[in-house]
Specification:
The protein is of the alpha/beta class and about 375 residues long. The protein has three domains: about 80 residues, Histidine-containing Protein, Chain: A, CATH 3.30.1340.30; about 120 residues, 3-Layer(aba) Sandwich (hypothetical protein tt1634), CATH 3.40.1520.20; about 130 residues, 60s Ribosomal Protein L30, Chain: A. It is about 45% helix and about 25% strand. Helix 4 links the parallel strand 5 and strand 6.
């Protein structure tokens, strides 16, 4: 009987404690709600008095959070300080931003509806991104880039939007790529009315030519940001240079092939027909290829930049193939040889002099496989 009374008393005590805790929590909640309501009322009143209403105010306990726009940085700071001065406010999370003027907004809108194109290129590929007005422009840009990108992959991510205005000459921008040093990274970036050019050129004359071409293509409404650098082309190797290369390559069949002097491998003008002297100049190459049958070789054809670029590309491919055919006829297995034309896109000298063009018209050997 006594045990039962004790258990009942304990149960009643627990019930009483639970009721008191609930009452305490309720009073605390009412108190906090009252504090938040009071602080919110004071905060809104302070902002209203200051003539500020373009913002959202939220409270969490005694912490205030502000989101919205104000006219100046001074006003943004002043609003935060005004709220911190209210008794009971513990912290102010000031996320106000500055409102932009009508002129700035209009400029952004105008730029938004102008086409954007970015060509980023390396020796291995050309990447194109941007925003153009129609599918026809998009296809024309990609086609033009593919023609210029001989030997390189073209990756495109161009978006078409009816909201973008038409601008003439966008596909012609790809012609600027061929002026750059193909072995160096470069970029052509058109954003609205600003064209940025980055990359390496072999002379100051080519740099000015590139700027003039860009200006002529897009007109005076587009400003050009010049980030170009001039890298002087490599001079003809001296006798000492050739001797050093010969000494270094004697121990390596691959180097011996790649360092061959093929300047006398020439063709009849405008054709892929090897001259008699051109065939004779391949005699050493034939000997090395037969001496080292484990080496596979790319025969690379190059032209100068005179004439049509599509014709030059086709001519470089046909000339490389003519050399391969002559080597096969001289006893080299065809499976070891690959012909590849690079057109005018990998110059080793400037194209505005006869000497430079003569250096750019050339055949090269690139060893692709095999061990020394």
């Amino acid at each position: 009987m006594i045990a039962t009374d004790t258990a009942t008393s304990r149960f009643a005590l627990w019930i009483a404690c639970l009721v008191l805790a609930s009452f305490f929590i309720f009073c605390l909640w009412v108190h906090v709600e009252g504090i938040e309501s009071d602080l919110e009322s004071q905060s809104v009143g302070a902002l209203s008095t200051a003539g500020i209403d373009n913002m959202e105010l939220t409270l969490s306990g005694r912490d205030v959070r502000l989101v919205g726009t104000v006219a100046s940085e001074e006003q943004r700071v002043a609003v935060g300080q005004r709220l911190l001065a209210i008794k009971g406010v513990r912290a102010v999370d000031n996320q106000l931003t500055l409102a932009r003027g009508a002129a700035a907004v209009a400029a952004d809108k105008a730029a938004l509806y102008l086409p954007n194109l970015n060509f980023t290129f390396t020796a291995g590929q050309i990447s194109i991104t941007g925003l153009v007005a129609d599918q026809q422009t998009r296809d024309a840009v990609i086609k033009a880039a593919t023609l210029v990108a001989t030997g390189r992959r073209v990756l495109s991510d161009i978006t078409v939007s009816n909201d973008v205005s038409q601008v003439q000459g966008l596909p012609r921008l790809t012609r600027l790529i061929k002026v750059f040093d193909i072995k160096q990274p470069g970029m052509i970036d058109l954003k609205g009315r600003v064209l940025t050019l980055r990359g390496s050129l072999s002379s100051e004359g080519l740099r000015q030519q590139l700027l003039d071409q860009a200006s002529a293509m897009l007109g005076q409404d587009v400003s050009i940001e010049d980030k170009l650098q001039v890298v002087e082309s490599t001079p003809f190797p001296t006798v000492a240079d050739k001797a050093a290369v010969q000494q270094e390559s004697e121990a390596s069949p691959a180097l011996r092939l790649q360092s061959l002097d093929l300047t006398e491998v020439t063709f009849k003008s405008g054709s892929d027909v090897l001259t008699s002297s051109g065939k004779s100049a391949l005699g050493t190459a034939i000997g090395l290829l037969n001496q080292f049958p484990h080496l596979d070789v790319e025969v690379a054809g190059h032209t100068d930049a005179l004439g049509d670029e599509a014709f030059n590309f086709d001519l470089s491919q046909r000339r490389a193939q003519s050399v391969v055919d002559y080597l096969v006829a001289s006893g080299v297995k065809r499976g070891r040889l690959v012909a590849r034309g690079y057109g005018e896109y990998q110059p080793v000298a400037v194209n505005n002099t006869a000497e430079g063009r003569a250096r750019n018209r050339r055949i090269e050997f690139h060893v692709m496989g095999g061990s020394d």
